[in-house]
Design a protein that fits this description.
The complex is a heterodimer of chains A (294) and B (286). By secondary structure, chain A is mainly α. The longest helix of chain A is centred in the last third of the chain and has 38 residues. Helix content of chain A is 79%, strand content 0%. Chain A has two domains: 42 residues; 222 residues, MetI-like fold (Orthogonal Bundle). Chain A contains twelve helices and no strands. Chain B is built from nine helices and ten strands. The chains are: A mainly alpha (294), B alpha/beta (286). Chains A and B meet through α8 and α9 of A and α3 of B. Bound molecules: adenosine-5'-triphosphate and magnesium ion (MG).
C-alpha cells in the first residue's frame, strides 16, 4: 500500500519515490454539495426575521396606543391594498423605476470620465473637487421645485434629480478606486514592459472595481430617492405622485403600499448591482469576508 | 578593501555586464533629504550571482530600483552592456520586496501576465508557468485568487512570475523575507535548480548572511545608511551547493568575516555587552 502511494507521488511530481510527498503542498480536498438546502433556509430566515419583527411591533403599536386607521393602517390592510391596486402600483413604479435608472446610468456615465480626469490631472482635481463638494452640499430638495418649473412635469427633471444625488458618491468612489492601486504595482507593470495605457487598463482599472462597485451601490439607492423627490414636488405620474394623491384623500393604506413598492425598487436595483459585482469582481474584498465567515 | 577581488574579476571579464559608477540617490521630502545611497560603484559579470547584504534602510531596495531604471539616480550612472540606463528596462525579472500579486487574477495568470506585454507565445508561457508552479509546490493553487494563498505561497508565486520569461537579468529584493526558515532553505535550493543552465545574472538582496553566502558567487556588504559598500567577498565554494555546505569551515570563515564587518560598523551589536541603561540611548543612534 505504502509503495503504491509513493509511486503515485513519483509519477505525479517527477520526484524520486523516496522524496515522498512535498511537505509544502497543503492538502486540498474538494467539498461536494457545499451550499446545502438547510443553509439556504437559514439565510432566508435571516432576511425574513426583521420583516416579521416589524410586523409584530406594528400590530402591537396599533393595539397598545389605539391608533386611528387613517393615521396608521393595519399591516394586513396594506398587504391587501398592495394586491388590489397592483395594476396602478405597477404602472406608477414603472415610471419611477425608469427615472431612477436613467438618472443612475447618466451619473455613472458622467462620473467615470470625471473620475479619470481627477486621477490623472492635479489641476483638474483642484478645480473640479470644490465644485463637486458644493454641488453635494446644496440640498436637492430645495432645487427640485426649480427644476420642475424649468423643465415641466415630465420625466426630465426627475432624471436630473436622480442624476444629481447619485453622481457624488459614484464619482468619489470611482476616483478613490482608481487611486487604490498599490504604487509599487506601477513599477512592476513598467518592468514587465507595459505602456502607460496598458498600466491603466490592465492594472489600475481592474484594481478599482471593488471600490467602484461600493460607489454604485450607494449611488443606485440615492438615484431612487432623487427621482421620488422630483415626483413629490410636481409630477403627473410615478410613485411619489401617487403618494401625494393618496395622502390628499387620506388613503393611508395606499400611501403605505406605495412606500413598500418604493423600497422594493431600491432593493431590487441594489441587488442587481450586487449580482453584477459578484459576476465581474469575484475576487473582491466583500466576497473574501464572506469566505472568512463560512 | 575588496579592491583586489574587484580587479581580479575585471581581469577575467574585461567587459562587465552591468557597471555601477558613483551611484547616489537622495529622496527629497518637504523639509528633509534622505541620502539612501552614497557613491556606490561595482560591476557584475554576465551570469554572476551577486548578493547584497546590509542593515535595514541602507538603500538596498533603492539600488534595485536604480539598476532596473525604475527610478533615476541623483548622481552617477548604471550601464548595462555599456549602455546607460535612462528608462525602465524590460529585459528583466524583478521580485519586489512585496509580492505585488494582482488580486484580480488567478495565480497562474499572475505569472503569465509577465509575458502579456512582451509578445511571448501564450501557450509556451503557460506551459513554463505550470512547470514552475509545480516546482515550488503550488500546482493545486494555479486557479485560485491570491487572497487564498498564504504569505509564503504568494512570495513563491511572485518568484515564478519573475523568471517565467527566462530573463537575462533577475533582480530579487528579499524574496524569501516572508518565509519560515525551512521553506527558506527549500527555496534557496530551488532557486539554484530553477536557474540552472540559464546563465541568468542575478542580484539578490537579503538580510541573511548565510543565505547570501550559500547562493552567491560574490557578496557585497553594505554599511549603515546612507548605503555604501564596506566589504566585498568572493565565494568560491564548489557548486552545486547543498545545505550541508553551511557546516564547512570555509563557509563559516566567510559568514564570520561578513558578521564581523557588520559588527565593526555597529550594525550588529552584542547586547549582552551593553549595560541595560545604555541600550536605549544608543539604539536610536543608527
Ligand atoms: N520613495 C521614497 N521616498 C523617500 N524616501 C525613501 C523612498 N524610498 C526609500 N527611502 C528612504 O531611503 C532609505 C533607504 O531605503 P531602502 O528602501 O532602499 O532601504 P533597504 O535597504 O531596502 O531597507 P530594508 O532592508 O528595510 O528593505 C530609507 O531611509 C528610506 O526611508
Ligand atoms: Mg528594502
Amino acid at each position: 500500500m505504502a509503495e503504491t502511494l509513493a509511486q503515485g507521488a513519483a509519477s505525479r511530481d517527477g520526484f524520486p519515490p523516496d522524496a515522498g510527498e512535498d511537505p509544502r503542498r497543503p492538502r486540498v480536498e474538494t467539498i461536494k454539495g457545499k451550499r446545502s438546502f438547510r443553509r439556504l433556509l437559514r439565510e432566508l430566515g435571516l432576511y425574513l426575521l426583521p420583516v416579521i419583527a416589524l410586523f409584530v411591533v406594528w400590530k402591537l403599536a396599533i393595539l397598545i396606543f389605539d391608533i386611528q386607521r387613517f393615521l396608521l393602517p393595519q399591516p394586513e390592510d396594506v398587504l391587501a391594498t398592495l394586491w388590489e391596486s397592483r395594476q396602478l402600483l405597477m404602472e406608477e413604479s414603472w415610471v419611477t423605476f425608469q427615472e431612477s435608472l436613467w438618472g443612475f446610468l447618466l451619473a455613472v456615465g458622467v462620473a467615470i470620465p470625471v473620475a479619470i480626469l481627477l486621477t490623472f490631472s492635479a489641476l483638474a482635481a483642484r478645480t473640479i473637487y470644490p465644485v463637486l463638494v458644493i454641488s453635494q452640499v446644496v440640498p436637492k430638495v430645495a432645487i427640485a421645485p426649480l427644476l420642475v418649473v424649468w423643465m415641466g412635469f415630465g420625466m426630465t427633471p426627475k432624471i436630473l434629480l436622480a442624476f444629481l444625488v447619485a453622481f457624488f458618491p459614484i464619482v468619489v468612489n470611482t476616483a478613490t478606486g482608481l487611486n487604490d492601486l498599490e504604487p509599487k504595482m506601477i513599477y512592476l507593470a513598467r518592468s514587465m514592459g507595459a505602456s502607460t495605457w496598458q498600466t491603466f487598463t490592465r492594472f489600475r482599472l481592474p484594481s478599482s472595481l471593488p471600490v467602484f462597485f461600493a460607489g454604485l451601490k450607494v449611488g443606485v439607492t440615492f438615484a431612487v430617492i432623487g427621482a421620488l423627490v422630483g415626483e413629490f414636488v410636481g409630477a403627473g405620474k410615478g410613485l411619489g405622485h401617487l403618494t401625494v394623491i393618496a395622502m390628499g384623500s387620506l388613503n393611508t393604506e395606499l400611501v403605505f403600499a406605495s412606500i413598500v413598492v418604493m423600497a422594493a425598487i431600491g432593493v431590487a436595483m441594489y441587488v442587481a448591482i450586487e449580482l453584477l459585482e459578484r459576476l465581474l469582481v469575484p475576487w473582491s474584498r466583500s466576497r473574501r469576508l464572506e469566505q472568512m465567515g463560512a | 578593501m575588496g579592491q583586489s577581488t574587484s580587479e581580479a574579476l575585471e581581469a577575467k571579464a574585461p567587459e562587465p555586464f552591468i557597471r555601477v559608477t558613483d551611484l547616489s540617490k537622495s529622496y527629497r521630502a518637504k523639509s528633509t533629504i534622505t541620502h539612501a545611497l552614497d557613491k556606490t560603484s561595482f560591476t557584475f559579470r554576465r551570469g554572476e550571482f551577486l548578493s547584497v547584504v546590509g542593515p535595514s534602510g541602507c538603500g538596498k531596495s533603492t539600488l534595485l530600483m536604480l539598476i532596473s531604471g525604475l527610478t533615476q539616480p541623483t548622481t552617477g550612472a548604471v550601464e548595462i552592456e555599456g549602455e546607460r540606463v535612462k528608462s525602465p528596462i524590460s529585459d528583466v525579472g524583478i521580485v519586489f520586496q512585496e509580492d505585488l500579486l494582482a488580486e484580480w487574477k488567478h495565480t497562474i495568470d499572475n505569472i503569465t501576465m509577465q509575458g502579456a506585454f512582451r509578445k511571448i507565445p501564450k501557450d509556451r508561457l503557460r506551459r513554463r508557468a505550470v512547470e514552475l508552479l509545480d516546482m515550488v509546490g503550488l500546482s493545486e493553487f494555479a486557479d485560485v485568487y491570491p487572497h487564498e494563498l498564504s504569505g509564503g505561497m504568494r512570495q513563491r508565486a511572485s518568484i515564478c512570475r519573475a523568471i517565467v520569461h527566462e530573463p537575462p537579468l533577475l533582480l530579487m529584493d528579499e524574496p524569501f523575507g516572508a518565509l519560515d526558515a525551512m521553506t527558506r532553505d527549500q527555496m534557496a535550493l530551488d532557486i539554484q535548480t530553477l536557474l540552472e543552465g540559464l546563465g541568468t545574472t542575478v542580484l539578490f538582496i537579503t538580510h541573511s548572511i548565510s543565505e547570501a553566502v550559500l547562493l552567491s558567487d560574490r557578496v557585497l556588504v553594505f554599511g549603515p545608511p546612507p548605503g555604501r559598500i564596506v566589504d566585498e567577498l568572493v565565494v568560491d565554494l564548489p557548486r552545486p551547493r547543498h545545505l550541508s555546505v553551511r557546516e564547512t569551515p570555509e563557509f563559516a570563515a566567510i559568514t564570520g568575516r561578513i558578521r564581523s564587518r557588520l559588527e565593526d560598523m555597529g550594525v550588529i551589536r552584542d547586547r549582552a555587552e551593553t549595560r541595560p541603561g545604555a541600550l536605549y540611548s544608543t539604539a536610536g543612534g543608527q
